[in-house]
Amino acid sequence: MLFAFLSEAQAIKLAVLLPLIGGLLVMWMGERNRNLREAASLLTAVLTFALVASLTGEVLGGARPSVDLFTMLPGLSVTLTVEPLGQLFALIASGLWIVNTVYSIGYMRANKEGNQTRFYVCFTIAISAAIGIAYAGNLLTLFLFYEVLTISTYPLVTHAGTPLAIRGGRVYLGILMSTSIGLLFLAMLWTYNITGTLDFVEGGILAGQIQGPELAVLMFLYMFGIGKAALMPVHRWLPAAMVAPTPVSALLHAVAVVKAGVFSVVKVIVYIFGLDFLNQAHSVDWLLFIAGFTIIAASIIALRQDNLKRRLAYSTVSQLSYVILATAILAPISVAGAVMHIAAHAFGKITLFFAAGSIYTAAHKTEVSQLDGIGKRMPFTMVAFGIGALSMIGIPPTAGFISKWYILTGALETGEAFAILVIVASTLLNAGYFLPIVYRAFFKDQQPRPESDPYAKYDNHGEAPIAVVLALCFTALGTIALFFYPDVPLALGRALVGG
Which residue range or ranges hold the NADH:quinone oxidoreductase/Mrp antiporter transmembrane domain (predicted)? Predict the structure, then answer.
C-alpha cells in the first residue's frame, strides 16, 4: 500500500494536511507555470483520495481510529476520529476533488478566467476543511472546520469580482456565519452545559439530560444552525452563490459545502441526540414536516426557473432535505438510505453542474429556454445530463433509485405517511423540471440567435474542451456504477446505525 508506512494517527493527520501542502505548492508555482500548478493540484487530489481510501477497510472492520490534535480548553480537545459516516464523506470529497480538478483545468482555461492560482489554493483549503469536518471527533472540531470551510469558499463565490458576485458573496457569508455563530454555537454551549462533553458517541449523549420543549428548542438550534444543510428559510445562500464559476458551483453542491451540511445534521442526530432517544421523545417530529416542506417548496420554485444553474440550485435545496427527511424518520434503514443519498446526490448533481458549465463554455447559453436542439451538437454533455437527471428523479439504473428505495422502505416500516407522500410528490416534481430539459435538447430544433446577438458566433459550437467532457462522462458513469455497486456506501450506512 502507498501509505502503509504511516500509523493510523499519522494517516488521519496527513489526510487533513495534505491538501494544504498541495495548496502551498500551487501558490508557490503561481501564474508563472500553469502546467505545473495544475499538475500539483491534481497530484494532491489523487494522493489525498488514496490516503483516505486506505482507511476504509479498517472502518468497515469495526475500527474507529482517533487522534487528539491539541487541547483547546480544559476537557475540550480538537480531535479527529474516523467513523463510518465521516469516512463516506471524506471519500466523496477527496474522490470528486480529482474529477473537479480535471474539469476545472478545462473550464478555467477555456473561459480565460482570472485569478486561477487563488482559485486552486482556495479549493485545497476547502477540501482540507471538508475532510476535517468528516473526521471531527466532537462538536468543537466540527465547528472549527465548518467555519474554515465557509471562509475559504467565500473568495470562490466572489471569484468574478463583479457587483453581482460581491452581493451573492455577502448573502452567502452572512447567512452561513450568522446561523453557525448565532444558533449552532449556542446549541453547542447548551449541550456542553447539560452533558459536560461535546464528543460524538454512539447512541448519543443527551438521553436523560433534556426532554420536552427544551429538547425541541435544542434540535431547532442545531438544524437551523447548520445552515449549509439549506433547510428553508435559511437556504437563500445557495442560489445566491450561483454567481460563482461552475467548478465552484460543483464544489458547493456536490463535493464539500452542502455535503458538510447534511453530513453534520446526520452526525448530530445519530451521535449527539441518538436515534433511540429521539424515537422515545416524540418532541422533534416537526423536523420531518420542515424537511418535507423544503423538498416540495424548493421543487416548485425549481419548476419556475429558466436559468439552468438556478434550477439546479433549487433542486439541490430539495435533494438535501431528502437526507434530513430520511434521518428524521428515525429508522435504521432510512438513515442508511440517507447515507446512500449523500453519495448518490454527489455524483448526480456534480454531473448536472458539469453539464451546465460545459454548455456555457461551448455555446454560451445559460437559460433552459435556449437549449432547443443542443443535444445534437453536444451529445456527450446532454446524455450525461440526462443520467444525472434520472438519478435526481430516482429512476434505475442510477444511484438515486437505491437511496430513495431505502428511504421509502424506512417510511413504510415506521408508518410515516407524510414522508411517503412527500417522496412520491417530489419525484413527480423532479421529473417535471428535469425531463423537459432533456426533451428540448434532443427533440426540438435549434433556434439560431439573431446576428446582432454577440453570442451568435457560438451557434456552430460542438462539445466543450476534452477535460470538461471527460470529467462529466466519468461522473455520469459513476452515477450508474453506484446503482450496480452500492456496497461501500451502504455498508458504511449500516455500520453507522449498527446494522
Answer: 136-428
pLDDT at residue number 83 = 95
Torsion of CA 261, 267, 269, 270, to 10 degrees: 160
Mean pLDDT of the chain: 91
**Is 136 strand, coil or helix?**
strand
Q: What is the CA 333 to chain-centroid distance, rounded?
A: 21
Grid cell 439573431 is found at 450
442, 375 in Cβ contact below 8 A?
Answer: yes
Alpha carbons 2 and 17: distance in angstroms, whole number: 17
269-285: average pLDDT = 89
Supply the pTM of this predicted model.
Answer: 0.94
**How far apart are alpha carbons 461 and 52 in whole angstroms?**
40
Return the residue matching grid coordinates 445566491: 240
Are 467 and 102 spatial neighbours (Cβ–Cβ below 8 Å)? yes
Q: Which of 61, 53, 52 is nearest to 495 (CA)?
A: 61
Q: Show the cell assigned to 84.
A: 463510518
Contact 431, 389 (CB under 8 A): no
Question: Which three-class secondary structure state does DSSP give residue 217?
Answer: helix
**Are 343 and 88 spatial neighbours (Cβ–Cβ below 8 Å)?**
yes
Quick check: 272 and 204 in contact, CB under 8 A?
yes
Position 1 confidence tier, pLDDT thresholds 50, 70, 90: low
Instruction: Give 446: exposed, middle or buried? Use CB within 10 Å, 0-12, 13-18, 19+.
Output: middle
Amino acid sitting at position 110: A
Quick one: CA torsion of 396, 380, 467, 461, rounded to 10 degrees?
-150
Tell me what pLDDT residue 454 has.
76
pLDDT digits (tens, 9 = 90+) for 228-275: 999 999 999 988 887 877 777 777 667 788 889 999 999 999 999 999
Sign of the dihedral through C-alpha 63, 64, 70, 75: negative
Which residues have CB under 8 Å from 76's CB, separation 6+? 138, 140, 192, 198
- pLDDT tens-digit readout, 377-414: 999 999 999 999 999 999 999 999 999 999 999 999 99
Average pLDDT estimate for 102-124: 87
Q: Is the pLDDT of residue 499 over 60?
A: no
Alpha carbons within 13 angstroms on the beta-carbon side of residue 357 total 33
Q: Give the pLDDT band (50/70/90) at residue 439.
A: very high
For residue 178, which of 224, 127, 232, 240 has the smallest C-alpha distance? 224
C-alpha cell at 367: 437559460
- From the number of C-beta atoms within 10 Å of its C-beta (0-12, 13-18, 19+), residue 201 rates as middle
Q: Residue 72 carries which DSSP code?
A: E
Which residues share a beta bridge with 67? 80
